[in-house]
Amino acid sequence: MELPRMHAFLMALVFTCVKAATKDVDMGSHCGPLGNGVDVSDSDAGDLFWDNYPNSEDCMVTLVAAVGKRIFLQFTDIHIEGTSGFYGCSDVLYVKSGSYGGNFYPDSTWETVCGTSHPDFDAHNRHVTLKLISDAHSTGHIRIRYTVYHSAHYDGCDQYTCVYNDRCIDDSLMCDGVNHCGDDSDEEDYYNGGCGVVKHRKMVKIIGIIAGCVGGLILIIAVICICYRRNKRPATTTSGVPMATVPQTANRGPAQVSEGRSYSPPPAYDEVVKSSPPRDSGNAVV
Predict the structure, then answer these.
(1) CATH no. for residue 64?
(2) Residues 58-105: pLDDT tens digits?
(3) What domain range is 39 assigned to?
(4) Residues 183, 113, 104, 29: what is their CA dihedral angle, to the nearest 10 degrees?
(5) Domains in the chain, number
């Protein structure tokens, strides 16, 4: 692989992150007086919106998260006619934790939302129901951010735990420019803030990639050195000196070989006695 391509590949590994699973819900296309459930079990976050709701509307929608999850709502951009408080609301958005069916009018246990702002709402439940009722003279718009989380206190957390509450949100929601925790900790730069954690993980990933590249380079060099040393060894050759043949005799044993020459073994004892001249006993000196 060419160097520029390798560099681009490493940079892509370093800065690639898993994109959050988001799902925006158009409230107007899901509403009904009996309440329609909207499955957000495959989503980490999203917007529930109605850009221009009509007058004389009676609409109820229930968001449904996966089992063990909970839903947290933030009213990021709302314009619902009326003012919460003494004068009441001309139009009203009712919010309550849980799932409710049937055509009914919410009571005082429901959160009442109108005007242009409202505090965050934590359902502490996998279901949250919203019911919009508008009068005959007004329209408005709604944009509510929902974040799906689970309790780090009760369930533990292998993702990101918000610093000032026990919400465990998906890692992909960290440092994305959106305050999913409600305390803004997932967007902070300090060491356990979301952006700080992201930067630390990127650094760890960079170090891991560098260490892997260095280790791979060392392994390649070692293999090259081993192959080079094996090819450098002299080949084993045979000498051009012919091997001496060793004749075998019945009584003498193998011939003695020395420095490429062949020698016969000494004669046997009985052969020496037979070939010796007879002794002259008459000329013996006493």
Answers:
(1) 2.60.120.290
(2) 999 999 999 999 999 999 999 998 776 546 788 999 999 998 876 677
(3) 23-155
(4) -80
(5) 1
